[in-house]
User: What shape does this take?
Amino acid sequence: LKLRLTIKGDEAVLDFTGSDPQLGSSLNVPSGGDPRHTMLLVGVYYVLYTLNPKILLNTGLARPFICITPQGSVLNPVHPAAVGMRSLTCARLRSVIFGAFSQVVPERLPAAPAGNNCIVNV
Assistant: This one.
């Protein structure tokens, strides 16, 4: 995953251009190109909860954030991409986003998490 975070006035643009193309495995994240898709912004929510644990999760929270995910990438795959294990990629995505925001406000955020997740399929 590759992220360029740009703060423009009261908006934050999370540009994932340069991230890997969609995968043949099931690690793709089906965002549908939605610039405010929940799976893409979950890392932002973690950052905001760290800054203010009393913040409420609602639609307005996503408004200032815009995600750019090129079509055909691991974060915006096209049919017939497999997506069943996307939570592993989302865990890493949270770490990448946390790391980017910690560069913007290093005095308020700890280091990015490890991005690990464990999936057991039976």
Summary: The first helix runs from residue 38 to 51. The chain has a mean pLDDT of 88.
